[in-house]
Design goal:
Blueprint: H1 6-11, H2 23-46, H3 50-53, H4 61-70, H5 72-102, H6 106-131, H7 133-137, H8 143-177, H9 185-206, H10 212-240
Length: 242
Amino acid sequence: MTDASPAALALGAIPEREVWVSNLTAGGAAVALGSLGVTATSVLYALSPPAAALPAQPFDHALALAGAVAGARTMFGAGTVGIFSDIVMAVGALLVASELARRGRGIAVAGWIAILLSIVVFTFVDAIVGYVLGPVAAMRDGIAAFTGFKRLFDVLFLLGTTAFGGGAMLALTNEMRSAAPMVSRPVALAGALTGLAGVLAAAACFAGFPFEQGVGISIGLGSAVFVVIGVQIMLRSRQGTR
């Protein structure tokens, strides 16, 4: 195909050449960028009172209420950064899953879909922590509403952690067995182990044990690992198109 002159393009005689970006290149970039934002969100969660910003077990209403008031600023920051990062990461997970589906890698697809669902759940978690818990806790007559939203926040946090951890284990263990892996084995192993830790910590919290710090740490570490995973997917995809 011959290159068109600027004049010809301006006149519309010859269509401009389309810029082509593969699903994996775009998906890897979105996963990396979104995960970076989620990592920053996790830091803001860590700076907030754990009784309010984590699914604390057993539930202590007084501590959660006081924590939501004291940590309103960092919780607002966590929610704001989180909701936008979640959207970017969800787009990336969907693009990666669609490409893996085209390749017939069903187990990996199931893992990435679970990760996508976990991100959708965490969008609500981040919205509640940033825009609901603090303002409702500061209301004079908001005690009952705060309790309801906090319990919803807790169960969604644990559900999202379970989906993310399970999805990471499925996707990354399958990746380690692939003949043409997109992610290096050490990084895939680190992500799978972090996912397992998150599932176990969330299960313990569902059973009433105080493992909420483990839940928070697993999400923070998992998002950091997925920054590297996204970068590796993007770079290896670009190398494969050359």
